[in-house]
């Protein structure tokens, strides 16, 4: 591979960051899109995830939803013995998860 292609490839997998008034290139692993092991010790963890909580207003917006034992359930899917995360208990407390469930074929079939 030519040096120009190698430089372009290297620059593709590096991310510029500003630290103490100067620019530093940070190398990322192409497989995981995470900083390489030597670089990751200098930065705070990128894998911190925001903790989402169940929002009680979802019960009003979606009357078929239930919140029990720190999990979300779908009464309609449970009644029809569907096999999806909302019959087993879903812990992904995001409104987008509820909206995705509403549009699922199993939920639509349970409503019929």
Folded structure, characterized:
This protein is of the alpha+beta class and 112 residues long. Helix content is 38%, strand content 18%. The protein contains seven helices and four strands; from the N terminus they run αββααββαααα. It has a two-stranded antiparallel sheet with strand order 1-2. Strands 3-4 form a two-stranded antiparallel ribbon. It is elongated, with a radius of gyration of 23 Å. Mean pLDDT is 76; it is low at 37-41.
Mean pLDDT: 76
Indicate the low-confidence ranges by residue numbers: 37-41
**Class by SSE composition:** alpha+beta
Provide the helix percentage: 25-40%
> How many DSSP-defined strands?
4
Our measurement of the CA-to-CA distance between the termini, rounded to an integer number of angstroms, reads 60 Å
- Overall geometry comes to elongated
Please trace the helix and strand order, writing H or E for each element: HEEHHEEHHHH
Strand content: 15-25%
Give me the Rg, rounded.
23 Å
Number of helices: 7
Major sheet: 2 strands, antiparallel
What spatial order of strands do you see in the largest sheet? 1-2
């Amino acid at each position: 591979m030519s040096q120009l292609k190698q430089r372009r490839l290297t620059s593709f997998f590096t991310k510029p960051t500003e630290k103490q008034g100067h620019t530093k290139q940070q190398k990322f692993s192409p497989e995981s899109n995470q900083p390489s092991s030597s670089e990751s010790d200098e930065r705070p963890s990128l894998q911190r995830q925001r903790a989402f909580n169940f929002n009680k207003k979802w019960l009003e917006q979606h009357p078929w939803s239930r919140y029990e034992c720190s999990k979300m359930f779908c009464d309609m899917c449970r009644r029809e013995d569907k096999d999806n995360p909302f019959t087993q208990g879903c812990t992904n407390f995001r409104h987008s998860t509820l909206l995705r469930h509403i549009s699922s074929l199993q939920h639509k079939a349970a409503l019929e």
